[in-house]
Structures are given as structure tokens and as C-alpha cells.
Amino acid sequence: MNKNLRKVVIAGNWKMNKTATETKALLAEMKEKLPQTDATILLCVPAINIGTAMESVKGTAINIGAQNCHWAKNGAFTAEISADMLNDFGVKYAIIGHSERRQYFGETDETVNKRAKACLESGISPIICVGENLDEREKDITKDVIRVQIEKGLADFTAEDMKNSIIAYEPVWAIGTGKTATAQQAEEVCAYIRELLAGLFGNETAQAVTIQYGGSMNAKNAAELLAMENIDGGLIGGASLKAEDFATIVSCAN
Ligand code: PEP
User: Fold this and answer.
1) 4 assigned to some structural domain
2) Per-residue pLDDT averaged across 159-178, rounded?
3) What is the CATH number for 62?
4) CA of 170 to the centre of ligand 1 (A)
5) How many domains does the chain contain in total?
6) Which band of pLDDT confidence, cut at 50, 70 and 90, is reported for residue 237?
7) 238 close to ligand 1 (CB < 6 Angstrom)
8) Is 181 in the pocket of ligand 1 (CB under 6 A)?
9) Which sign does the torsion angle of CA 141, 144, 147, 149 carry?
């Protein structure tokens, strides 16, 4: 499959930012500034603001997503949120295994796998994050790290599950640091991820999967990154909190 036939997904990760009132204000600005596009536009907001955000974007092309999701259907998991709860709000996408979840909340490839499968069972596309840290890049073991994250994170996935999932390649050293991977560095790893997917699910499936790059993507570097053959979108933190910058990134995807 040609890059042009894959779904382009430009996703914002608002992390733990914006109150409900601020969410409404920023979404109002986004609605004004975002250009017409064939790309899927997604903003993953804090869970408590999903309802407010859904109301605010009603009738527009903006999708509202989640930043995490528990693997159990329901039960004694205080403060957690299930895929069915997200689905009931109309959520179609959830970020799973973000490096901050792995770093600060003990997320592992095994829990990433369980959470992603729970999403798929409830009709939600997981955006499964993988990426090496600085030490691993300097030791030249990036591909080994990515291979393990992909193999374990996607354990027992069917080809259909894979087609309903998105992979986000996010080098940890580039997240929130202002240090972006070069377009060549990002493309090399995204191409490797597609190669791994081809080995696991066959080439037809691998060619259909949207692979995003994330890590200090901004209004200045987005065009070059998004032009790469195996980069089909972005997962954007800081720049997704500024309507003007996010709008520029979306326009680069056109
Ligand atoms: C992220 O949170 O996934 C991210 C890529 O953040 P930033 O764009 O700020 O580096």
C-alpha cells in the first residue's frame, strides 16, 4: 500500500493540562483555526474533561480521545476508567503505554497489551506508544528495544486488531525536551516498525497501519517529518496546547 492510502492521524496529547473551562476555550479557538483536512484530527484530553470536550466539538471533524484505559470491564480498581466507559462517551481512540505512564506509573509491555486489547474489544482504536530512551539510543540498541515493545505489546493480536490500532513511535529523549528526532532517524525506526508488523501480521496488514511520530513535533518541523514514507501522522504534546501551532501541523498533513 502506498503512503497516500493510509489514514493520516494528527493527534494531540494534552496530558494533565486544562481545566474544563480552559478546555472549552481552547477547543473554541481550535474550531476557528483548524484548516479543512482529510486527516483525522484527534485531541486526547484528561478523562475528567472528555464529556465537556465532546460537547464542545459536536458537529465538527475534531475527535476527542482518552490518554489511558484500564483492561478490566469493571470492578474494584479505584480511580480507573474502563473501555466501555470511554465508548459510552463516543470515544474512538485512546493513547496506551505513553512513556510517561511507563516511567511514572509502572506501565509494562504486558499491561500495555492488556489495555490495548480491552480498547479493541470495546471498539476503541488504541494508539500504542513505543520508543527508546536516551541511554538505549546511545548504546545503539534502539531497534532491540522497539522489537521487544512491539512483540510484547501486540501479543495475541489478530491482523484485524492490528488494522484497528495505531502505533506511535516516540523516542523518550525527544518528548517534551524540544529535541526532535531528525526526519531520517524517525523514518528509520518507523520503517523498522512496519517491517516488524509485516513479520507478525503479513505485509498487507503492515502496509495499512498508521504509524505516527511523536517527540517535540511542532509547527516548524512537522512538514519534514510528515513527508517521510513511513510516518503517517503525529502524536503531539506541547504544540497541541496552542491552537495556532496545532493548526499549522494539521495543515502540513494535507
Ligand atoms: C507526547 O506527549 O506524546 C509528546 C510527544 O510530547 P511533546 O510533543 O511535547 O514532545
Assistant:
1) no
2) 95
3) 3.20.20.70
4) 8
5) 1
6) very high
7) yes
8) no
9) negative
pTM above 0.70, yes or no: yes
* Per-residue pLDDT tens over the stretch 184-227: 999 999 999 999 999 999 999 999 999 999 999 999 999 999 99
In the reported structure, the alpha carbon of residue 213 is separated from the centroid of ligand 1 by a whole-number distance in angstroms of 10
Please indicate, yes or no, if residue 2 is contained in any of the structural domains: no
Query: Using a CB cutoff of 8 Å and minimum separation of 24, what contacts does 19-26 make?
Result: 19/49, 20/48, 20/49, 20/52, 23/49, 23/52, 23/53, 23/56, 24/52, 24/56, 26/241, 26/243
Q: Is 160 considered catalytic here?
A: no
The count of other CB atoms within 10 Å of the CB of residue 147 is 17
Domain assignment of residue 199, given as a range: 9-252
The end-to-end CA distance of the chain, in Å, is: 19
Q: Is 202 in the pocket of ligand 1 (CB under 6 A)?
A: no
User: Letter for the amino acid at 89?
Assistant: F
Q: Rounded CA gap, 111 and 102, in Å?
A: 10
Residue 208 lies in a domain: yes
| Contact residues for 71 (Cβ-Cβ < 8 A; gap 6+) | 111, 114, 115, 117, 118
